[in-house]
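Standup notes
- DV: blocked on the single-chain target, sequence here:
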Amino acid sequence: MKKIIISVLAFAIVSIGACKDKPKADGGTGGGGAGGGGITPPTDPATANTIGFFMNDWQAKKFTAPSYNEVVKPTATATSFVTVDAGTIVTKVVPSIYAHNANSWMGDMINDPALMNHVTNLKPNIIRFPGGSISDIYFWNALPGATPADAPAQLLDANGTATAAGYWVGKNTASWTISLDKYYTMLQQTGNQGMITVNYGYARYSTANNPVATAAHLAADWVRYDNGRTKYWEIGNECNGTWEAGYRINTANNKDGQPQIVTGALYGQHVKVFIDSMRKAAQDIGKTIYIGTYILEAQPAAWQTATDQTWNAGVLPQVNNATDYYIIHSYYTPYQTNATASEILTTASANTGAMAAFYQNTITTAGNITKPVALTEYNITSQGSKQQVSFINGMHAATLMGEAIKNKYGMTARWDLVNGYNGGNDHGLFNGGDEPGVAKWNPRPAFYYMYYFQKYMGDRMLKSTVLGGVMAYASSFTSGEKGVILINKSTSAEIVNISLQNATAGTRFYWYTLTGGADNGEFSPNVYVNGTGPTEPTGGPSATYNTIKASSALTSGGINISMPARSVVYLSMDK
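- DV (later): unblocked, structure below
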């Protein structure tokens, strides 16, 4: 991960039952459309260039009605109105929006049934590897203690201090780490595919006569070994960062005249060498791969390095015709500040849209071709009140995914499955066994927000408008049902009325309401799903989340939902 600044938001899902041209407090059950009740059939829009080939993984979704408990709908006047236009499709929803990151220190995974079960149920679709900054010191084909002779024993940090290199290797079969082959096995057993980040740092610190060609050859050999199991590849991790191996090198040991500090232009030149070697390897084995290039997601602040200030301007002219897609990272909230829940929740929508706009402007200004964009790492860095392990971070993740779909990202991947508790400053989706008094692999609250999001977001996002204080992300399923994800990020309860245009209402609608606990101020580490609470001291209903009954009501008389303060509702309605 890198040191970055951005914020968060709150989120909810709701499906659609009643239909009216104009919102009314009591809703309605008729079908409606603009222009006197006619229904406009939807048409799939062209795939956005920012999504591109990620759409190749699109799959039609069928909604299966859950078991339910009958719930009495609220009779009070609605405070927010959501209108869903089923005749206007914003975009088809790519499964890569739900991606996640694995890392090399989280254990071998395949021998942990509880973790494997949760990952299978979550189905991120893409799991990135070998994990953040480790990628730039990772030798995929090496045994422990047998890294290449041209990989120096010490590397320079940003200040020029030599420290032990600490290389990671792909053939370490110890149970505390995950080998490359076990990673492939994990993907196969959980029904996911991979994204691999190859070692760019090696092109900088290698002492070979031609370090760039040597590093590119290592990456190409990985493509050959992979043999088509992985479609998505990226070159290096946050290569502009002062924390990355290769940011500063010992020029006395370098044999091709590289500068001491990396630049965007240099990285771009090297990327083309990697792409040529990797693409040739894929062609040799008859496989298609897509290779990504790392750029910055926002205008660097004044305090950032000269490398940062010129990164995108240096990279883009080099890779315009070479790269298949662009990669960005963001940790949303101001770096390691004790931010409030409101500050955090705001960033999920504001920054996701701002990054999309900055990306397009950057590409256009450079005269480059617009290609797919992948946010391959995201989370929040707020700390001091256990923000990262709280239900607020779950709301942030849900909002972020909705905004990423709306802004037509090709991929988003949350960092990460397991990290380290560190007193609650933990990006991990699961407890790795170091949270006191809590079972290993217990899911954090964010797991539940992401699990229900994918189940209740259809395969097409629909246009929706909101009058009031909630956020809404509407969708349709190929099987005919409609859905809405509602997010109430405020500290006040809302009654939400949902109406439908250009479609008729079904008989019944179903929903799940996710709320936080009352402990730890704004940042409860607990989440409740339709009132069912944690199985462990923190987290959620880990033993029952896939069997909890939905709430349900008839659509006759309108679709009205009670939303507690800071809640997310995931709802689907009969066709």
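- Follow-up: Residues 341-366 form the longest helix (26 residues).
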